[in-house]
Amino acid sequence: xxxxxxxxxxxxxxxxxxxxxxxxxxxxxxxxxxxxxxxxxxxxxxxxxxxxxxxxxxxxxxxxxxxxxxxxxxxxxxxxxxxxxxxxxxxxxxxxxxxxxxxxxxxxxxxxxxxxxxxxxxxxxxxxxxxxxxxxxxxxxxxxxxxxxxxxxxxxxxxxxxxxxxxxxxxxxxxxxxxxxxxxxxxxxxxxxxxxxxxxxxxxxxxxxxxxxxxxxxxxxxxxxxxxxxxxxxxxxxxxxxxxxxxxxxxxxxxxxxxxxxxxxxxxxxxxxxxxxxxxxxxxxxxxxxxxxxxxxxxxxxxxxxxxxxxxxxxxxxxxxxxxxxxxxxxxxxxxxxxxxxxxxxxxxxxxxxxxxxxxxx
Length: 362
Description:
Blueprint: H1 6-13, E1 17-22, E2 27-28, E3 31-32, H2 33-39, E4 43-49, E5 67-68, E6 75-78, H3 88-91, E7 96-100, H4 111-125, E8 128-132, E9 143-146, E10 161-163, H5 168-177, E11 188-192, H6 216-225, E12 245-248, E13 257-259, E14 277-281, H7 287-290, H8 296-304, H9 316-320, H10 324-330, H11 335-342, H12 345-354
Parallel strand pairs: 1-4, 1-7, 4-6, 7-8, 8-11
Antiparallel strand pairs: 2-3, 5-6, 9-10, 12-14, 13-14
Helix pairs in contact: 4-5
């Protein structure tokens, strides 16, 4: 991991006032990066926390409040509360911002949006950004529609496909190189790459990246299943297998599996709370069957819905990043035809991506 290559970046932090953008995945040398750097004598001043909080226990979308880290005594400033972008006041006593968070390679996973705002604030305030890179568990392929500008939001900030095939370090270079920060500014950026990694290297996360992605299988399914968050179909939040269960009360009772979401840590108010949902248990699928981005479940569940007029929610376009997918599914278009409409934007993105790769494809 980038964070474990101390010889590459400790010299850049010596004598500097440091802010850390980290969560529970930020481990280095057997301990949390905060503790590791403090033990190395680095002057860490502030911890910044993304969605789910510094310890990664808050529910999706839950407002994160400022606080204090009990272990180190350092202030924790939220980047998922009243502001998602570090303010000038937050950065005034800092020289360097270190970003070290495990991503899962899907455009709507918000840690890369936090990265964007950290880089933007740093560029505006004259601070430097150091990205300690980590593997992308879905980094071996590129797929899905490219975000259209009118659907830009915190769950999609860049004109990239749903599965972008980049590590955080590579994406940081793309954001900078393509001048996607406000006003076309560029951050003073250094990336410490992962040693010995290729995009074909399988990587199972040692720490769950967020409360509802508990294992490698759910991470592999996530790009495909997350689109249901823009529909009336539960993705299994509030069950023992989030992103491995899909179902809804509006699906046929003849579906082979049923479950009932209930409030639980990490999902206090799950969609379809307390309602029996009919659907599928995807735990039976092998990792090979689950890898890759697919529309087959989405198309199937729309076609089988007993309340098609209520199937899609207003959030669907923000997740998909395109105005056309909802209409294509309603019109009964097959997946192959829908995929053809993603070109040439997807082809253009794949060419762009090559400019910013830090690792070989295989």
